[in-house]
Amino acid sequence: MIGRYGLDPMSQRILVWLLITAVCGSGGCASPRRGEYQSTLHVSIAEPSDQADQLWEAVQETLRRGRFQIDRVDRAAGIVTTLPEASQHFFEFWRHDVDTQRDAWEATLNPMRRRVEVSLTREGDGPWTQLAVVVHKERLTSHDRQFNSSGAAYQYFGESLPSTTGKSQVGAKDDRWLDCGRDSAMEDYLLREILKRCPSKIASATESAPSS
């Protein structure tokens, strides 16, 4: 309900979901096409080779262009990972770390972050046989703060307000990142972008595999 000085926490949640429903219901965001997404490709690329070098560079360049900060690069293990990155808001058109309008609105209304794992698999000293992309997404959760005066608005994101459950102060140490599973749409997008940056001989040698 709307009080004298603002919205209580429950009303804030209701308002957020009403906004999401209104945007999506008006055609502002498309429903995920989970059945059409893929995150894995079969490949046959000798390692080491010029083609392997080019694919390895394509993976890293794609992540950098997506504004992901690369964390681990281990060619012997065939693994590239990134640090968690705050997901773009709907108006950040210069970024591309979410791939649907629904995800962009979700990140705008509630802090989200994503991290990426790209792996190339092979048996022993044989060629790389599989390219896989996994995008993990997480949502920030924090205790609801008491918001019952006009002055509290200036402190709402600080650490001086008590929580609605009785905790005397709520700070960053109380925040938690909740695992929200994988972002299939972004996995599919990154996979396609990696292939775009590969020579045609690599791209034509790949064979689609079902999503994992």
What distinguishing features does this structure have?
alpha+beta; 5 helices; 8 strands; disordered C terminus
Can you walk me through this structure?
- The protein has 212 residues and is α+β, with helices and mostly antiparallel strands.
- It has one domain (34-152, 165-208).
- It contains 5 helices and 8 strands; from the N terminus they run αβαβββαβββααβ.
- The protein has helices spanning 9-25, 50-65, 101-109, 184-196, 200-205; strands spanning 40-45, 70-74, 79-82, 85-86, 112-122, 128-141, 176-182, 207-208.
- Strands 1, 2, 3, 4, 5, 6, 7 and 8 form an 8-stranded antiparallel beta sheet that branches.
- β2 (70-74) and β3 (79-82) form a beta hairpin.
- α2 packs across α4.
- The radius of gyration is 21 Å and the shape is elongated.
- 24% of the residues are buried.
- The model is unreliable at 1-5, 23-32 and 207-212 (pLDDT under 50).
Strand tally, please? 8
Task: Name the helicity range.
Answer: 25-40%
Rg, Cα atoms, Å: 21 Å
How many structural domains? 1
- The helix/strand class is alpha+beta
SS summary, helix count: 5
The largest β sheet comes out as: 8 strands, antiparallel
Proportion of residues in β-strands: 15-25%
Mean pLDDT: 77
Order of helices and strands: HEHEEEHEEEHHE
Poorly predicted tracts of residues: 1-5, 23-32, 207-212
What is the general shape? elongated
Question: How far apart are the first and last residues' alpha carbons, in Å?
Answer: 44 Å
